[in-house]
Amino acid sequence: MEKGLGMRLHSYIQGCWKAGRGRPVPLLSAVDGRLVAEVSSEGFDFSEVAAFGRQVGGPALRELTFHQRALLLKSLAQHLLEHKEEFYRLSRETGATRDDSWIDIEGGIATLFAYSGKGRRELPNSHVYVDGEPEPLSKNGTFVGQHIYTPMTGVAVHINAFNFPCWGMLEKLAPSFIAGMPCIVKPASQTAYLTELMARRILESGILPKGSLQLICGSIGDLLDHLSAQDAVTFTGSSGTGLMLRRHPALLRHSIRFTMEADSLNASVLGPDAQPGTPEFDLYIAEVVREMTVKCGQKCTAIRRALVPRAFVQPVIEALEARLRNLVIGDPWIPGVSMGALASRAQCSEVRERVNRIAQGARIVYDGAATQLPEGPLARQGAFFAPVVLYCDSPFENSQVHDIEAFGPVTTIVPYDDGAQAIELANRGQGSLVGSIFTGDDEFSRQLVLGIGAWHGRVLIVNRDCAAESTGHGSPLPGLIHGGPGRAGGGEEMGGIRGVLHYMQRNALQGSPTTLSRITGKWIRGAEPLTKPGHPFRKRLGELEVGESILTGKRQLTLADIEHFAKLSGDRFYAHMDEAAARANPFFEGRVAHGYFIVSAAAGLFVDPAPGPVLANYGLENLRFLAPVAPGDEIQVRFTCKQITPRETEDYGEVRWDCQVFNQAGVLVATYDVLTLVAKH
Ligand code: NAP
Among 268, 493, 521, 674, which is disulfide-ready with 657 (CB 3.0 to 4.6 Å)? Predict the structure, then answer.
């Protein structure tokens, strides 16, 4: 027996591992019914738990920059990968096959890596996130607005569902950690032993600052009573529990942020063009089967309703049956087994009861219960459930199929007659995490997306061109939002940096450009330029200052220059080359210089050419040509250090420069950001 099986789970609170008192709840293996662990959190002082997170974890985390926190996540991900085999072994007790566990364990670890990368690429290496461009608020530019985000100063309480004991913890931990908010993780009891094991490996690594992660195995008791305005709660689970938590008096009183990811009757639509024999038809069948069987159908994103053109109903039933018949259900640790068990025998009863309720408005067209379930002790002790396919012939008259989530390997085929019907039926789920469309007809996709977009958090469109690389209907991804409107909870998680911002407060800052530049670490136009001795290209990263600025010499752009540039680049667009044609253009009064020439000539003015700390120019951003430059015009550049982002693990960092190109009349003709890499030493 795996070390630790049958042990009372400990919670990690206030910096130590503690077991709850009282009568514990037994947690049984989904595979063979053995006692895996016991859980209780009785006797904990939850007000102290919250206070510890706020007072110890919060300040320690917020002292770090975004990049430093992101790097800790990367180290953590690497550390967890080294331990993955023990997570896989224990995951078997949840009923998961190795493939199922891969989503939970390595999918969760991959989310840490993804957030670490995004945090370092998309956030500054500082403490304030600048949201968008400054808002001009005054005629003379001495008073501006700028939206920023700063971390919330409370704790993030993450309440998770039983089906993803690892991913559920990590996908919530990653964005809150990068934001600078300490977490209190509460896994669902049924599979908390796996979360506890992973949390142990996290905590014993010593990678995370003290107090930044606490774990509660068992009930959270009166924790929510002790939350306040700076705290946040995220919940993943059934809509019933979510609704109850959302109405908690403390959450209402303090306007505590509450993110809910609930159940969802996700639909997948087979397009009218995807008739039997087409690649899209085969892809659809494979996806419906995958969504029914991965994690034994215990995925909030699984396909619960298969919407197919009425003419294809019978071929779809037959194709699904042909595939499902070959499933091997059993101990997920045994090679060759393709589907494991539900999380518990109680889940088996619940799923069967829900199938029966859906069947009041539909008919069962496939049920593997009689032939596919394992025999012997596993049958008596395990939580095995064979796949069930239903067919609802009158989906507008029977609401069960749109209302009842059977959280297992169950799907219902629903016929539709045209695109409008497909839209209406998909939306009868009253808000879903994900919808998918299998079609090669982009016009049909467009019609559907416009019709179902408002009711869905994510829409996947699969055709033969993208199928091989598609991540699938049921996979939430760190860079894309996960969540959905209405019944799905109305929440949003992940979505890259969007997910980080859920744990920060947006603030509309107002003041002088100079003050706001100092606060945000990002130079704002209108702020006083810093004139310092020496060319900024001669300065190492640590010697440069945001706001440091030079006004270059001038250069006249002649007709000969323009013709030279046309020859060199091959760009002989008429506006540069043909006086009469240029004049006929509504924007020009005659031939004008190439925009790219202006950019090149500007570089010739601001670049200091000798080898030095500037290592490379890696791009331009926000380039705009604002006024034409005619032959004979003279240009001059105001070049200002806008933002400095040291890279934690490299000997260099990024410097963003504000570049403004003026003509002899002081009119701004071009503006852009220049991005360079600058050495630290
Ligand atoms: P659940 O029974 O609603 O439980 C979810 C979580 O809430 C568990 O951690 C549970 O802890 C906790 N909880 C229950 N009562 C509570 C209370 N009074 N106060 C505080 N916490 C409480 O859901 P589940 O059975 O674990 O998960 C299955 C459901 O989750 C399905 O409906 C599925 O669709 C949904 N789900 C949604 C998503 C999504 O991202 N949208 C993902 C996965 C699952 P205990 O276990 O200790 O009771």
Answer: 674
